[in-house]
Amino acid sequence: MGVFETVAIALWAMLPAYVPNNAAVLAGGGRPIDGGRTWNGRRVLGDGKTWRGTAVGTLVGAALGLVLNAVASNASDLLGVSLPTFPATVLLALPAGAMAGDIAASFLKRRTGRQRGAAFPGVDQLDFVVFALLFAFLAAPAWFGDVFTLPVVAVVVVVTPLLHLVTNAIAYALGLKDEPW
Length: 181
Ligand code: CTP
Ligand code: MG
What we know:
Layout lengths: L2 H25 L10 E2 L2 E2 L7 H29 L8 H24 L11 H17 L1 H7 L2 H24 L8
Antiparallel strand pairs: 1-2
Helix pairs in contact: 1-2, 1-3, 1-6, 2-3, 3-4, 4-5
The structure holds cytidine-5'-triphosphate (CTP) and magnesium ion.
Cytidine-5'-triphosphate binds next to helix 1, helix 2 and helix 3.
């Protein structure tokens, strides 16, 4: 498999996991998931993880996956690359995993004394990737093995932090996000 094909498949397969966090930023607000509860004097998750943000993020990611499924064969012809379609379970697993990873990172941030919005380099950029991949693997192991080959996973791990930095910097510049990470 060539470099172009590897990168194209990596980005395509991860798109349903990339958009949930950005959708959550736009949709966030309302009741926090932890209901304001604390653990050892610190919030369990914090006000930055809400039911609405999580639900909308997951649904937007799944909806994007449906759109990608609909245009996969046209996009494959256009790019000259065999792009994968997503089984129903993966449509939900990728965005749900992305949201779960982000929530797990906030849990970790609060335990290590980081306030809401504090940066946690490395964790901020890869939390959602690790969980999205794990959820997708659990949802459809055979599909996962076909699509997420070692080179594809390598591209995902290298390119995702870069994309994350760029999109968050844009969201910050547009005033949608309080911090550029
Ligand atoms: N958001 C949400 N629900 C989620 C994730 C994000 O409502 N599950 C919204 C919140 O409004 C949040 C914003 O998106 O403030 C930015 O997300 P993020 O950077 O992940 O949260 P932070 O506020 O920075 O909080 P934390 O320190 O816990 O990451
Ligand atoms: Mg943040």
